[in-house]
Write a structure and sequence with these properties.
- The chain is mainly α.
- Among the domains are: about 130 residues, no CATH class; about 110 residues, Fusion Protein Consisting Of Minor Coat Protein, Glycine Rich Linker, Tola, And A His Tag, Chain: A, Domain 2, CATH 3.30.1150.
- The protein is about 55% helix and about 5% strand.
- The termini are far apart.
- It is found in: Membrane.
- Its main location: membrane.
Length: about 375
C-alpha cells in the first residue's frame, strides 16, 4: 500500500477568516484524522513497503505539503503476504456551498478561541512513531541478518571442513591405490624380466645348437663341394684330354687329307687331269686359258678351314655343297652364295666358313682372278 502524500503548509494552520470557511476546516480536520488512523493501521498490519498513493485533501488551499516518506529497505527473506486489506474509501468530495448573499456588515465581535487538534502535530507524532517502528524493524532485520550470516559462516565452515576431510580421504585412498598399483607393476615387471631372461637363455641355447648344426652342415657341404669339384675337375680333365685327342686325331686326319689332296693335285697337274668338276678352272682348261693344277690349289686352301667331323660313311652317298664365290681383283672374297645344298646345314656352313677363311684365293699362274668361281666340296673326298 502506498503511503498517502499529504500536502500541508509549512506554518501553523490559519484560522478561518470568517464563518463561511469553518465547515471546510472541520472537514479537513476529519480527513486528517481518518488519514492518521489509516497510517497507524497500515504500519501495524503490513510488513511490505507500501507503494505510492496520492490522496488529495480539500482544505482552505493553503495546507502545508508533507515530504515524501523514506523508501523501506527490502527484506532479506520473503515473508508470507497477508491477506489484502480493503483500502479506505476516499471521503466524498462535498459539493461547493452556494455563495451566500453578502450579509450586512455586523459590528466586529470578539469570538472566543476554541481548541482544535493540530493536524501537523498528529502527523509529526505518527511520523515519529513510524520512524521508531521502522528503526525497530531495521534492528530486527539487522539482527536476523547477522544471525543468518553467522549460520551461513558456520555452515560454510562445516562444509569446508567436510570437503577437507573428503579431500584427505580421497588423497589417502589415491595414495594407497597408487602404492598397490606400483607394487602390482613391480611384480609384473619382475615376472616379465624373469620370463624374458628365460626366453633369452632358451634362445641362446637354440642359437648355439643351430650354429653347431649349421657349422656341421656347412662342413659337410664344403667337403661334398670339394669332392664334387675334384670329380668335376677330373671329369673335365678327362673330357679335355678326350677332346684334345679327338681334335688331334681330326687335325691329323685333316692334314692327311690335305696332304693327299695336294699330292693328288700335283699328280693331276702332272698327268694333265681336270680340277674341280664344273669349276672355272675346268672351263678355262677346256678353253686352254688356265693351268691344270689351279683347282687343286683352291681345294688345298679351303680344306683346312672346314671344321667339320664327318660321320661314318653309310653306303656310296657323298653329300656335296656347291658355292659361287665372288672375288675381287686382288683375290679377296667379296661374296659367297650357296647354289646347291648338301642337305646337311652344318656341313654347308662348315664349307662356307672354309671358303671365307681362304682369303685371298690362290693366284692363278696365268695372271688375274676371275670375277666368279664355282667351288664344289664333297664330304668324303
Amino acid at each position: 500500500m502506498t503511503p498517502p502524500i499529504i500536502r500541508h503548509r509549512s506554518g501553523p494552520p490559519a484560522t478561518p477568516p470568517n464563518n463561511d470557511n469553518r465547515n471546510a476546516l472541520i472537514l479537513a480536520v476529519a480527513v486528517h484524522l481518518l488519514l492518521l488512523v489509516a497510517l497507524i493501521f497500515g504500519v501495524n498490519w503490513r510488513t511490505e513497503a507500501p507503494g505510492p498513493v496520492e490522496v488529495q485533501l480539500w482544505a482552505d488551499g493553503n495546507s502545508p505539503v508533507a515530504p515524501p516518506p523514506t523508501p523501506q529497505p527490502e527484506q532479506p527473506k520473503p515473508q508470507p503476504k497477508p491477506e489484502p486489506q480493503p483500502e479506505p474509501e476516499k471521503a466524498p468530495e462535498p459539493p461547493p456551498p452556494p455563495p451566500p448573499p453578502p450579509p450586512p456588515k455586523p459590528e466586529p465581535q470578539v469570538q472566543p478561541k476554541t481548541e482544535e487538534v493540530d493536524p501537523e502535530i498528529a502527523i509529526q507524532e505518527a511520523k515519529k512513531k513510524r520512524e521508531q517502528e521502522e528503526k525497530a524493524r531495521q534492528a530486527a532485520e539487522a539482527k536476523e541478518k547477522a544471525r543468518l550470516e553467522e549460520e551461513r559462516k558456520q555452515a560454510e565452515l562445516k562444509e569446508k571442513k567436510r570437503l577437507e576431510q573428503e579431500r584427505q580421504a580421497a588423497e589417502k585412498a589415491a595414495a594407497e591405490k597408487a602404492a598397490e598399483k606400483a607394487a602390482a607393476e613391480k611384480a609384473a615387471a619382475d615376472k616379465a624380466a624373469a620370463e624374458k631372461a628365460a626366453e633369452k637363455a632358451a634362445a641362446d641355447k637354440a642359437a648355439a645348437e643351430k650354429k653347431a648344426k649349421d657349422d656341421a652342415a656347412k662342413k659337410a657341404a664344403a667337403e661334398k663341394a670339394a669332392a664334387d669339384k675334384a670329380a668335376a675337375e677330373k671329369a673335365a680333365a678327362e673330357k679335355a684330354a678326350a677332346e684334345k685327342a679327338a681334335a688331334e686325331k681330326a687335325a691329323a686326319a685333316k692334314k692327311a687329307a690335305a696332304d693327299k689332296a695336294l699330292k693328288d693335285a700335283f699328280r693331276n697337274d702332272a698327268l694333265g687331269a681336270a680340277g674341280i668338276p664344273g669349276g672355272t678352272a675346268d672351263r678355262n682348261q677346256a678353253g686352254g686359258g688356265r693351268d691344270n693344277g689351279y683347282a687343286a690349289k683352291v681345294r688345298a686352301c679351303i680344306l683346312p678351314g672346314v671344321a667339320y667331323q664327318p660321320p661314318p660313311r653309310n653306303g656310296s652317298a657323298n653329300p656335296t655343297a656347291q658355292y659361287r664365290v665372288q672375288l675381287g681383283t686382288d683375290g679377296k672374297v667379296n661374296g659367297v652364295n650357296l647354289t646347291e645344298s648338301s642337305g646337311n646345314p652344318a656341313f654347308d656352313r662348315a664349307v662356307e666358313t672354309g671358303i671365307r677363311r681362304c682369303n685371298p684365293f690362290p693366284k692363278p699362274s696365268t695372271g688375274g682372278y676371275d670375277k666368279f668361281i664355282d667351288v664344289v666340296h664333297k664330304m668324303y673326298d
